[in-house]
Write the structure tokens for this entry.
Amino acid sequence: MNETLENCMDDSSIFSIFVNMRDKHWKMKEGFLVGGGIIVAGILLQLALGPINWSVFAAPVNYIVLAQVLALIGIIYVFRQKLYVFEWMMHASAAVPSLCYAAGLTIIMGLTVQTAQGGIPWLSQMLSFWPFVLIWSWMMLISGLATLNHLLRWQWREIPFILNHLGVFIAIVSATLGSADVQMLRMNVFEGNEQSLALDDNGKVHQLNFALRLNEFTMESYQNGMPKRFASDISVSSTEGGNVSGTVEVNKPLKFNGWKIYQYSYDVKSGPDSQYSVFMLVRDPWLPLVYLGIFMMLAGALCLVVLKYVPKRKWVLLVALLLTGFFTYLTVSRMGPTAKEQPPALQSPWFIPHLIVYMAGYAMLATATLIAVYMLIKPGKAERTGMNLLDNLVYVGLAFLTIGMLFGALWAKEAWGHYWSWDPKETWAAITWISYLVYVHFRRGRPDDRRTACWILIFAFICLQMCWWGINYLPSAQGNSVHTYNSK
């Protein structure tokens, strides 16, 4: 019996990999193998079950799943000293491969038109594609474990790490599991009339417990006929009591009994003479948790800016400021007439902070890329010092990138009712963000492999260019992106 057990636990057996983990130090190679296995498993699930039906995760199922995820993280942490694979999942050698796979699948999403009808099979509906969802879930599991590990080993210098990782975990997990509970309904109301029926994305009619009356629709236009402002004076009354009146316009929704009412559209053909308004009605019970995660990420990013900025290198600050101004000029000039005649969506207090913070991030990361290219061409004694400067620039640039992305999410929520819709621009923003996370985690896992780190940085900057201006030339964005305000 013992001899048989010893044979089963031989070093060449699969079982031994999980039992003798203390002698089997997994690294990034194993991480890529695990990720590949997850993708294969996802493809098999796609073939067997078809695409993921997110509606089955509506409450209370999503609460049960959340409890199971948290329990799984706790169990893995408790048994981390029994199986080395559990401890490995908390380190950069596990994080880097998961981030690489997440970036790769998201790039596929960013290059293909996402549509419910037609398109490339599987790839045109990535949000319900099993490999995509499983890889992102694997990435979030690793993030949750790393967060718990640092939380229970509390140190002040780890505050940015904890805030960022915990914020990402809370925001993404809450947004994903809560998506089945989100109600986004469209309502057409004619001027002087009252309406209590609304349609979802599938064309299903919903009877609401309140009615919306359109008192008056108004519109202002620029000289070229483009809309400058359009708004609706409305009254809302509930069958359960309570009423509210106000003006709804883009970037200025109206709240009522847990709902937010957005000015979505109007009769475009009639313009100022439109006789009706189109409203988007949104109810999201998980929104407070998502916002908690977002504000934790913002706090973590601000901490990174404060802790990683190196004031001694004044030339870096000068270059970054010059590039920030130059990039801002390029962005505004590419907008053409839109820069002066802003559509209603751009008329928001979020516009200037969102733009400047992003341009500051681009400037820092552009400076880092130039240094990385120089180090690849002329490696030498200053390489270690150069990498320290490079790391600080990437940390600060990534922090600005994170702040800009989150400002955009908060802005989108006020303008359109959803903080993240995987619009092509948002998709490439996520790709860019993940690519720089690959660099950060790679540096933590392999600090001596400087050349690979520089190449990762160059690749990430290419993704940044796609997010910044290359998106306008992709078929996936033509007519599908609310972020495209100008033509080629």
The longest helix spans residues 383-416. The radius of gyration is 25 Å. The beta strands are 183-190, 194-199, 205-221, 227-238, 243-249, 254-256, 259-266, 276-283.
